[in-house]
Write a structure and sequence with these properties.
Blueprint: E1 2-8, H1 14-25, E2 28-31, H2 32-41, H3 45-55, H4 62-74, E3 81-85, H5 91-103, E4 110-115, H6 118-132, H7 140-154, H8 157-163, E5 167-171, H9 176-188
Parallel strand pairs: 1-3, 1-4, 2-3, 4-5
Helix pairs in contact: 1-9, 2-3, 2-4, 3-4, 6-7
């Protein structure tokens, strides 16, 4: 079983690349954003709980996010592996994921970060915002705020996974095909 954590700043191309990688390696793609939207839309027990926090303007606690993710993993017992997109975002979440996977006799195989210059990514998101309808992609200040949060909370995962020998950085600038090729080289050599 191969379990990949794909991370990078907003606009780095995680969603686009996840689509190619899940097909090429027959992985189950779990996007935290999609999981949240599903639980909220379907008013699941976890979705209702998450909504109570969101309605107050609070961040959804790790415990709730982790339970949503565990539920998704449990729905796919016969998978060849998972591609985690948008999770973990903090060291506490990474430790919870390690513990949960270990309980199943699994582990994170590798963490791959799509890296790109902030200025390039800001322009990508502003362009995407013109067609995506996503409000958070149309305001440069909000985009830079998201990067600040990423730097504070998610960037430390680089060290966490590097200490385990599981961290790989991939240049996220270039054509979609070039980036897919770079990611494939990492995965093929695991």
């Amino acid at each position: 079983m191969i379990n990949i954590v794909l991370f990078g700043k907003p606009g780095a191309g995680k969603g686009t690349q996840a689509e190619f990688l899940k097909e090429k390696y027959n992985l189950t793609h779990i996007s935290t954003g999609d999981v949240f939207r599903y639980n909220l839309k379907n008013n699941t027990e976890l979705g209702a709980l998450a909504k109570t926090y969101m309605d107050r303007g609070d961040l959804v606690p790790d415990e709730v996010t982790i339970k949503m993710l565990e539920s998704e993993v449990d729905k796919n017992p016969d998978t060849k592996g998972f591609l985690f997109d948008g999770f973990p975002r903090t060291i506490a979440q990474a430790q919870a994921l390690d513990s949960f996977l270990a309980g199943k006799g699994w582990k994170v195989t590798a963490t791959i970060a799509l890296e790109a210059n902030d200025e390039v990514l800001v322009q990508r998101l502003l362009e995407r915002g013109k067609t995506s309808g996503r409000i958070d992609d149309q305001d440069e200040e909000k985009i830079r705020n998201r990067y600040q949060e990423y730097n504070e909370k998610t960037a430390p995962l680089t060290h966490y996974y590097d200490q385990q020998g599981k961290f790989y950085a991939v240049d996220g600038i270039g054509s979609i095909e070039e980036i897919t090729q770079r990611l494939s080289q990492v995965i093929d050599n695991l």
